[in-house]
């Protein structure tokens, strides 16, 4: 009952975006995908969500996604895209209800309002989606995605949240709120895969991290194993220092806090 | 974070309002039918005839001809064509994710017209067995094929990676319309006298030539296309989020797009085949309905069919009485009423085209 990507290869014309990446995400965990711009993070998520043609295999809860119908996939996983444009003036609550349309069992009609309340936007239900700010729109889309897989476990199987840079246009408070929602979903038995830019948020919230660089998986493991000086410096091509606060009984002077 | 209990009012329910609108529009449609049967070039009126029937008197020969052979088929055709144009407008706007897409504007109507002209001029060259098989459906079916080809081409040209460029769509529509117009012009030169007469009557853009034969030739295709379009509500709603997201929420996007394109081509093609080009119904009707009750396609498509039928039947009444005993081509009436609304949409929402 995991989400397993095996030897994923994707090419855009002549350019190879992914050269054989494998990844196993387990339910109950937040799996983060990090890496520099152009390393293939979003492409990997695109393959996992069956949004683009790829070589290799993706299995969702034991089934090959290539053999699943769109509505079968929709019942087991919801996808938050990086940016969303909406064609017609739907209201916020109408947008969230679109997530319900997969008609999965056990969803009650008040799920959309509860999903909106979960992202702190219940009082925005009647607003026109196009009139929201970028951050608000992103949270409404998260509510839509949550409504689609409202119960993290259905029919004894985990459901999945696949998030492409879920906090890219949010302020710091809402970044924490959204990542907390993702982690709660995982703790309740669901699975989460998130493409992340922010390494600190990743260290805070991810259970497992895949570091991509140049279309390949450089490292995969817990944040402590993977977010090291060596791996990050190689992945991002610049010298990076990873710090951790010292044990509590040792005095520690932070030079940034000094005043003359 | 707001808990559920803190939310004082339930969200506005535009869907119920749109469903109530079904009944309101159906009632208005009934009234439009009565007006259409009541008014005309002769002073025969529906109410007078009903009064006569109520007193047990028989209708005169003229009254029967006016009612059953002139006004009723004209009403039926106005209803069919109006519903077809409005539904294909709404479906096409959903498919292209843009409120400016309209079969008449982006060249699908012109493509359908080319198909119809091809059938009128070159139809005689088809094998006799085939003509027997298709019979009086030849012109609508050819118009459907013309409209289908144009819609496919248009979608292909203007849509890349699941998003449609409005500018490309409109420009491609201009090129498509020009090409279809030029080919139609060549065919007109090739036509003989009898075909020229057929073409002239066909191209008037009016319901003046309405007959039961035309109603029967276009009715099935229009009915089928509208029926297919009415099932697309959920899919078109999903498509408003983009093709990728529509697939993520469980919609079979390729299948839905194919059905939408066929339905648009069928409804537009059959309407153009019997009435020539009648503009603006497809753009004005869905726009007004979105303002009234929101963009949810599950109700928008049926409401468009009803309001389209109402508007075209009433526009036809205006066309008949305004310079009686002569009559205006109905295309003039819809353009006079519709073009300002179209410009108003552009003025209000200028952002639509730049994006």
TrEMBL record, chain A:
<keyword id="KW-1278">Translocase</keyword>
<feature type="domain" description="ABC transporter">
    <location>
        <begin position="3"/>
        <end position="239"/>
    </location>
</feature>
<dbReference type="InterPro" id="IPR027417">
    <property type="entry name" value="P-loop_NTPase"/>
</dbReference>
<keyword id="KW-0813">Transport</keyword>
<dbReference type="GO" id="GO:0005524">
    <property type="term" value="F:ATP binding"/>
</dbReference>
<dbReference type="InterPro" id="IPR003439">
    <property type="entry name" value="ABC_transporter-like_ATP-bd"/>
</dbReference>
<dbReference type="Pfam" id="PF00005">
    <property type="entry name" value="ABC_tran"/>
</dbReference>
<dbReference type="GO" id="GO:0016887">
    <property type="term" value="F:ATP hydrolysis activity"/>
</dbReference>
<dbReference type="InterPro" id="IPR003593">
    <property type="entry name" value="AAA+_ATPase"/>
</dbReference>
<keyword id="KW-0067">ATP-binding</keyword>
<protein>
    <submittedName>
        <fullName>Heme ABC transporter ATP-binding protein</fullName>
    </submittedName>
</protein>
<comment type="function">
    <text>Part of the ABC transporter complex HmuTUV involved in hemin import. Responsible for energy coupling to the transport system.</text>
</comment>
<dbReference type="InterPro" id="IPR017871">
    <property type="entry name" value="ABC_transporter-like_CS"/>
</dbReference>
<keyword id="KW-0547">Nucleotide-binding</keyword>
From TrEMBL, chain B:
<dbReference type="InterPro" id="IPR000522">
    <property type="entry name" value="ABC_transptr_permease_BtuC"/>
</dbReference>
<feature type="transmembrane region" description="Helical">
    <location>
        <begin position="72"/>
        <end position="92"/>
    </location>
</feature>
<feature type="transmembrane region" description="Helical">
    <location>
        <begin position="169"/>
        <end position="191"/>
    </location>
</feature>
<dbReference type="InterPro" id="IPR037294">
    <property type="entry name" value="ABC_BtuC-like"/>
</dbReference>
<dbReference type="Pfam" id="PF01032">
    <property type="entry name" value="FecCD"/>
</dbReference>
<feature type="transmembrane region" description="Helical">
    <location>
        <begin position="104"/>
        <end position="126"/>
    </location>
</feature>
<keyword id="KW-0813">Transport</keyword>
<keyword id="KW-1003">Cell membrane</keyword>
<keyword id="KW-1133">Transmembrane helix</keyword>
<feature type="transmembrane region" description="Helical">
    <location>
        <begin position="138"/>
        <end position="157"/>
    </location>
</feature>
<dbReference type="GO" id="GO:0033214">
    <property type="term" value="P:siderophore-iron import into cell"/>
</dbReference>
<feature type="transmembrane region" description="Helical">
    <location>
        <begin position="328"/>
        <end position="347"/>
    </location>
</feature>
<feature type="transmembrane region" description="Helical">
    <location>
        <begin position="259"/>
        <end position="288"/>
    </location>
</feature>
<keyword id="KW-0812">Transmembrane</keyword>
<dbReference type="GO" id="GO:0005886">
    <property type="term" value="C:plasma membrane"/>
</dbReference>
<protein>
    <submittedName>
        <fullName>Iron ABC transporter permease</fullName>
    </submittedName>
</protein>
<comment type="similarity">
    <text>Belongs to the binding-protein-dependent transport system permease family. FecCD subfamily.</text>
</comment>
<dbReference type="GO" id="GO:0022857">
    <property type="term" value="F:transmembrane transporter activity"/>
</dbReference>
<keyword id="KW-0472">Membrane</keyword>
<feature type="transmembrane region" description="Helical">
    <location>
        <begin position="300"/>
        <end position="322"/>
    </location>
</feature>
<feature type="transmembrane region" description="Helical">
    <location>
        <begin position="20"/>
        <end position="51"/>
    </location>
</feature>
<feature type="transmembrane region" description="Helical">
    <location>
        <begin position="212"/>
        <end position="232"/>
    </location>
</feature>
């Amino acid at each position: 009952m995991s989400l397993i990507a095996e030897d994923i290869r994707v090419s855009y014309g002549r350019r190879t975006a992914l050269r054989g990446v494998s990844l196993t995400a387990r339910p109950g965990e937040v799996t983060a995908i990090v890496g520099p711009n152009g390393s293939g993070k979003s492409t990997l998520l695109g393959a996992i969500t069956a949004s683009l043609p790829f070589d290799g295999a993706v299995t969702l809860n034991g089934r090959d996604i290539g053999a699943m119908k769109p509505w079968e996939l929709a019942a087991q996983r919801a996808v938050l895209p990086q940016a969303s444009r909406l064609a017609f003036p739907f209201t916020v609550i109408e947008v969230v209800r679109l997530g319900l349309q997969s008609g999965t069992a056990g969803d009650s009609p008040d799920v959309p309002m509860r999903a909106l309340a979960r992202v702190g936007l219940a009082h925005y239900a009647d607003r026109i989606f196009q009139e929201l700010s970028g951050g608000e729109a992103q949270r409404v889309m998260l509510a839509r995605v949550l409504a689609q897989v409202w119960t993290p476990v259905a029919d004894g199987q985990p459901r999945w949240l696949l998030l492409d840079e879920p906090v890219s246009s949010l302020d710091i408070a809402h970044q924490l709120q959204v990542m907390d929602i993702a982690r709660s979903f995982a703790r309740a038995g669901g699975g989460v895969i998130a493409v992340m830019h922010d390494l600190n948020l990743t260290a805070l919230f991810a259970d497992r991290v895949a570091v991509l660089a140049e279309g390949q998986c450089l490292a995969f493991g817990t944040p402590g194993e993977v977010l090291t000086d060596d791996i990050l410096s190689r992945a991002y091509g610049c010298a990076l220092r990873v710090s951790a606060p010292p044990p509590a009984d040792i005095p520690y002077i932070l030079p940034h806090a000094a005043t003359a | 974070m707001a808990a559920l209990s803190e939310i004082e009012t339930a969200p506005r329910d535009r869907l119920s309002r749109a469903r109530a609108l079904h009944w309101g529009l159906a009632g208005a449609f009934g009234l439009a039918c009565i007006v259409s049967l009541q008014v005309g070039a002769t002073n025969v009126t529906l109410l007078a005839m009903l009064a006569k029937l109520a007193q047990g008197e028989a209708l005169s020969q003229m009254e029967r001809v006016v009612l059953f052979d002139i006004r009723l088929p004209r009403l039926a055709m106005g209803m069919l064509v109006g519903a077809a144009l409005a539904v294909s407008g709404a479906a096409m706007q959903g498919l292209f994710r843009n409120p400016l897409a309209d079969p008449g504007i982006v060249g699908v109507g012109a493509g359908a017209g080319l198909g119809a002209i091809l059938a009128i001029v070159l139809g005689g060259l088809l094998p006799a067995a085939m003509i027997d098989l298709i019979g009086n459906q030849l012109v609508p079916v050819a118009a459907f094929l013309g409209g289908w080809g144009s819609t496919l081409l248009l979608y292909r040209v203007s849509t890349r990676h699941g998003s449609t460029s409005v500018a490309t769509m409109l420009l491609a529509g201009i090129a498509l319309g020009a090409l279809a117009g030029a080919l139609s012009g060549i065919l007109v030169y090739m036509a003989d006298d009898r075909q020229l007469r057929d073409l002239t009557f066909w191209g008037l853009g009016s319901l003046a030539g309405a007959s039961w034969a035309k109603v029967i030739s276009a009715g099935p295709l229009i009915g089928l296309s509208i029926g297919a379009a009415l099932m697309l509500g959920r899919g078109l709603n999903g498509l408003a989020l983009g093709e990728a997201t529509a697939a993520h929420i469980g919609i079979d996007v390729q299948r839905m797009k194919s059905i939408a394109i066929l339905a648009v081509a069928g409804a537009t093609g059959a309407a153009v085949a019997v009435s020539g080009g009648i503009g603006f119904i497809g753009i004005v009707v869905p726009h007004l309905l979105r303002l009234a009750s929101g963009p949810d396609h599950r109700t928008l498509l049926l409401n468009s069919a009803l309001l389209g039928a109402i508007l075209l039947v009433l526009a036809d009444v205006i066309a008949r009485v305004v310079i009686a005993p002569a009559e205006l081509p109905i295309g003039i009436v819809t353009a006079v009423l519709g073009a300002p609304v179209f410009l108003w949409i552009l003025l209000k929402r200028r952002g639509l085209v730049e994006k």
